């Protein structure tokens, strides 16, 4: 094992060990394993948007690193430069329309930054693996920082952020296969038209980098290496699909068509008698959530400017709901306004607009009523959008002795496990 401090310091003596450890901000004992898969083919890498639309950011490498400008060739300087001050904070900024690294400008619209083994670095204090790309935004007034990382190393940073690492190994393995499939699907569907494949937030799947890793999570990743879920595609061929998942379905998972608008056989919704065994009662049944009517109108107008035509929103009624025999989820709402106009919105969009954290308005398996100048969301069940695998349900199934494959085929029926490599 060669850690960012440990390996370097072992070679250079105890004094340097203390100095490097102090700069790097970690205890000398701690060792980060080298990043596996750095020689993987490009199709097995992922591009994660780490920092969006900023004028500067701080990176810190545990090893030497090379910066390569867009217009550089192998010989040219200053298009390519080696930095050999491991542990030092390095500022990335914009100056005169050019990206600067530690004050040195680089030509072109982007630069690649490649650290040596163990290929680990910090961006704004959080630790990640792989390499970095800095891309100037259109208008040349800000830039994005994108993490290029081998898929399996990426998953180690996702699964530990999406599920507690002390959960059952088979639940962690099911989560890993779902996260791998989801990532590859989003990359294939949307990655071609932009400089990155996924964000690091709940908008896609939460990516915590090295800080989310643990031995249990790496075991789940390694034991499922390259495994994904496939199903029949609309054109009749077989392929991956968006294996959505969420915390607690509340008794029945939702048809993806009603939430995300896409139709795949494994995403039609299934009964889940499991999550109530694992979810805390206050998450399985969540307490009344109240929001000021004026605040709801304001948030909706900001997110959907066309709703300004409605004036103040005076009524929110259920336009459509799913019904799975005792489990009802709001899927579409009708918004009526003081101008007499009305419009429709997906219930999940209403939920995440009114409460972007989702911590109070935890699902659309609830009822909406008005009381005075407040909107009340009551009789709530579950946590999250409810599509695909129910994470608490997966844990309950694993506790009962079910294998990862059984868990996945329960939540994604009519799919099968396949290998991409
Ligand atoms: Zn469930």
Structure keywords:
single chain; 421 residues; alpha+beta; seven-stranded mixed sheet; globular; disordered N terminus; binds zinc ion
Summarize the helices and strands and which ones pair or pack.
Layout: H1 6-12, H2 14-24, E1 45-54, E2 56-61, E3 65-69, E4 80-83, E5 89-95, E6 98-101, E7 104-106, E8 110-115, E9 120-123, E10 126-129, E11 131-136, E12 143-150, H3 151-162, H4 169-190, E13 198-199, H5 215-223, E14 227-232, E15 238-240, E16 245-246, H6 256-259, H7 275-278, H8 281-284, E17 285-286, E18 289-292, H9 293-303, E19 313-323, E20 328-337, E21 342-346, H10 347-354, E22 367-371, E23 374-378, E24 380-381, E25 389-390, H11 391-399, H12 404-411, E26 416-419
Parallel strand pairs: 1-13, 16-25
Antiparallel strand pairs: 1-12, 2-5, 2-9, 3-4, 3-8, 5-6, 6-7, 8-11, 9-10, 11-12, 14-15, 14-26, 17-24, 18-23, 19-20, 20-21, 22-23
Bound molecules: zinc ion.
Overview of this structure, please?
This protein is of the alpha+beta class and 421 residues long. 26% of the residues lie in helices and 31% in strands. Among the domains are: 1-31, no CATH class; 36-151, no CATH class; 282-381, no CATH class. Helix 3 crosses helix 5 (215-223), helix 4 (169-190) packs antiparallel against helix 11 (391-399) and helix 4 crosses helix 12 (404-411). Mean pLDDT is 90; it is low at 1-29. The protein binds zinc ion (ZN).
Give a summary of the structure in a few sentences.
With about 425 residues, the chain is α+β, with helices and mostly antiparallel strands. The chain has helices at about 5-10, 15-25, 150-160, 170-190, 215-225, 255-260, 275-280, 280-285, 295-305, 345-355, 390-400, 405-410; strands at about 45-55, 55-60, 65-70, 80-85, 90-95, 100, 105, 110-115, 120-125, 125-130, 130-135, 145-150, 200, 225-230, 240, 245, 285, 290, 315-325, 330-335, 340-345, 365-370, 375-380, 380, 390, 415-420. Among the domains are: about 1-30, no CATH class; about 35-150, no CATH class; about 280-380, no CATH class.
């Amino acid at each position: 094992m060669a850690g960012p401090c440990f390996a370097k310091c072992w070679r250079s003596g105890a004094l340097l060990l203390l100095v490097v450890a102090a700069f790097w901000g970690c205890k000398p004992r701690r060792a980060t394993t080298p990043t596996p898969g750095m020689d993987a083919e490009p199709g097995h890498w992922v591009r994660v948007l780490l920092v969006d639309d900023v004028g500067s950011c701080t990176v810190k490498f545990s090893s030497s690193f090379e910066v390569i400008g867009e217009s550089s060739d192998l010989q040219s300087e200053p298009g390519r430069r080696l930095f050999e001050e491991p542990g030092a904070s390095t500022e990335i900024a914009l100056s005169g329309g050019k990206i600067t690294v530690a004050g040195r400008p680089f030509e072109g619209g982007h630069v690649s930054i490649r650290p040596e083994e163990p290929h680990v670095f910090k961006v704004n204090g959080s630790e990640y693996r792989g390499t970095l790309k800095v891309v100037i935004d259109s208008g040349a007034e800000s830039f994005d920082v994108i993490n290029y990382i081998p898929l399996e190393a990426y998953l180690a940073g996702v699964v530990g952020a999406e599920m507690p690492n002390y959960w059952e190994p088979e639940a962690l393995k099911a989560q890993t296969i779902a996260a791998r499939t989801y990532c590859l699907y989003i990359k294939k569907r949307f990655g071609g038209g932009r400089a990155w494949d996924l964000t690091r937030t709940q908008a896609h799947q939460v990516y915590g980098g090295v800080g989310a890793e643990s031995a249990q999570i790496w075991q789940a990743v390694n034991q499922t290496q390259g495994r994904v879920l496939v199903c029949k595609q609309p054109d009749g061929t077989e392929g991956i699909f968006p294996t959505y998942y969420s915390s607690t379905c509340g008794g029945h998972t939702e048809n993806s068509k009603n939430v995300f608008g896409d139709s795949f056989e494994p995403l039609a919704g299934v009964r889940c008698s499991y999550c109530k065994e694992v979810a805390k009662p206050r998450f399985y049944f969540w307490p009344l959530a109240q929001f000021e009517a004026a605040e709801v109108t304001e948030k909706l107008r900001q997110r959907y400017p066309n709703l300004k035509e409605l004036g103040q929103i005076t009524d929110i009624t259920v336009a459509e709901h799913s019904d799975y025999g005792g489990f009802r989820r709001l899927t579409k709402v009708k918004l009526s306004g003081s101008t007499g106009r009305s419009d429709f919105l997906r219930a999940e969009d209403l939920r995440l607009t009114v409460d972007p954290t989702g911590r109070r308005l935890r699902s659309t398996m609830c009822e909406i009523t008005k009381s005075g100048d407040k909107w009340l969301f009551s009789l709530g069940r579950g946590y999250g959008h409810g599509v695909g695998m129910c994470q608490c349900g997966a844990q309950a199934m694993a506790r009962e002795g079910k294998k990862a494959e059984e868990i996945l085929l329960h939540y994604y029926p009519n799919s099968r496990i396949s290998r991409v490599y």
